[in-house]
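DATA CLASS: polypeptide
GOAL: derive structure tokens

***
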Amino acid sequence: MLPGVTPPPTVSAEYLAADGTPAQPVRVLALNGQLLIQGAGADRSVALRGLRWPDQAARRGHLRELVLPDGARLRATGAADSAAWDAWQRQVGPGSGWRALRWAGLGALLAGLAAALLLWLAYAQGLPLAARGVLALVPTELEARIGRATLEGMDGEQLAPSTLPPERRRQLEARVAAALQRSGTPLAYDLQWRRSRDGRHPGPNAFALPGGTVVVTDELVQLLEGADDALLGVIGHELGHVRERHGMRLVTQTGLVTLAIGALIGDYGSVLAGAPVLLAQGAYSRDFEREADDAAIALLRANGLSPLALLTLFERLAARAGQTERAGEPDAWGIAFASHPPDAERVARIRAAAASAAHPPP
């Protein structure tokens, strides 16, 4: 997955306007320091800074209520909605971290640290192996359903239908299919084209979802205009994620961690309710990304192309980032997340692959 496609934290709630209008269902997103409220009865934004979030003492049963500066309210009710709200608030509000731990007491803090250490050991040593075992039991239809549900969610919030000319899409689809055929590694995949709904996020990007769906944005095609070899390499990177089932492996590993946390703290409800948010924000590991880079390099080589074509992506992304900074626009969806190997490392590996192809060992 290219950096910068992580969806913002969202939650479902009811919106009660200050004028007494009946409650309306809305979707609430936290993005760039703003709380975005979207629904048939409301479409507004409120600064996150200064909001008075419901704390533990103010909660009544399953009721969660956030009062906005103008007197309007956001409300969640019911066990499932309140648990989802709590998981969401822990990500975007101030009612988490050291403040929450202070109220929980020193004993809870020590227990949490011990649990974190155990989870880290389990993650580093046993989680990948366990996830592979579970993954072998996952039906392909379930994997496809997860991918479809994820794309539907992104279509509702971040993505819009592509405006690329149909002929251009067909040309790119034919080239990808021919490249895979020449590589001798057939693969079931579904290439989808989208654009950023707001014109900025996720911007130039491509990403793979469980079940074989690969999404390419119009902005990426435009960024790599005149460099179709680089675009083929990027799509080959995502096809590497598909071949290795990285998306479903991420879901499986995160699910195992979620269940382990529930067993340690004895609170399955809130943990499981927050799992969709955690999964939506998951990022591929560095090992996954290296495997996908290797797949892109192999696809280019099999088609008589130099892996150096991939460097065009880094060059144009860097130039675009510089333009964004000069325009004074914050780049909240930057191209360097911690989960990805540093750009310098990836560039060095690509250059080494190109050099080894040019000078094979005797």
